[in-house]
Amino acid sequence: MSFFIDEVQMVPELFRALKVVVDELRLRDKEHANGRYLLTGSVNILALPKLSDPLVGRMSVLTLYPFCTAESSQGIGNGLDRLFNFDFAGMTDRGLSLIDAIKLATFPEIADKNAKERSLWFDGYLTTILQRDVRQIAELEKISTLPNLLRILAIRAGNLLNDADIARDMGLNPVTSKFYRNILKMMFLNFDVEPWFRNTGKRLVKASKGFLIDTLMLCHMLDLDLEDIKKNKPDLFGHVLENYAVAELTKLLTFSETKAKLLHFRTSDGKEVDFVLEKADGSLFAIEIKKSESVNIQDFNGIKTLAELTAKEFIGGVVLYSGKEVVPFGKNLWAVPFHILWQ
Hints:
Layout: E1 3-5, H1 14-29, E2 37-39, H2 49-52, H3 69-72, H4 79-84, H5 98-104, H6 115-132, H7 146-155, H8 163-170, H9 174-186, E3 190-195, E4 209-212, H10 215-222, H11 226-232, H12 234-253, E5 260-266, E6 272-279, E7 284-289, H13 301-310, E8 314-321, E9 327-328, E10 333-337
Parallel strand pairs: 1-2, 3-5, 7-8, 8-10
Antiparallel strand pairs: 3-4, 5-6, 6-7, 9-10
């Protein structure tokens, strides 16, 4: 018999009791002791030592993200694996526009809802998270500032994180601001992409980039209409598109055949690659995001800089763009339509 327990962070005393039960099960029937309890919650348990410590060595931890586009549109396979393998044969957009794809890549409850229904759901969800659930993990003196902090992080999505600047906008000191930002990470609302760094002889930026875990949430926080900004505010749409791309990559990595770490690359003189996937053996795959429907060789400048610095470790790179065709730009360099993400 298996048991399902939801919102476990609300009953911290449960963890020590489970430790006793699990140990007894292992003594009686070790072969069949695993998998008896499925615990779910809206807080990162690993960030709460008082909760997670009793079950160290007795649990497996999985992060369940919102839908990726492929899941929501009943896709098969993993587009990230196709990228790694330069497998571009037989791709199709499956009738989805990029706007449709972004709308589908969200929480299951609203993946098929209209704009009004999504807005109402996000209002309720964020109120619950920021006013009720946060109190389960920390006593914050200025808890009322969290919605504003999440809005600031939405505005800055895709930028290098600078806690001093964020603190200035918040009217807080940098230490408090960083602590509050990490609280939001514990609630699975935002996440960081760390920099790729190595002693290459070239000065590299060591700051992380910040993003929101859900792109429709970002739009909700900034009161953005996707169709409108794509048509009338292309720079702002590029900001939203980068958040969508990194959120999709993060989700796809959780069930990709190839295990890799998601990073970004930037030199002190401004050459950059939006995202770098580093495998366990140190090999690197570069991904640049471009909102336009055409690509030229200059769009690969950052990727080429990374390739020159890493030599044999560099295995290839792509520019994901809004066009329809896969176009070669050199050895293992390709312009690839965004729809590879939902193959």
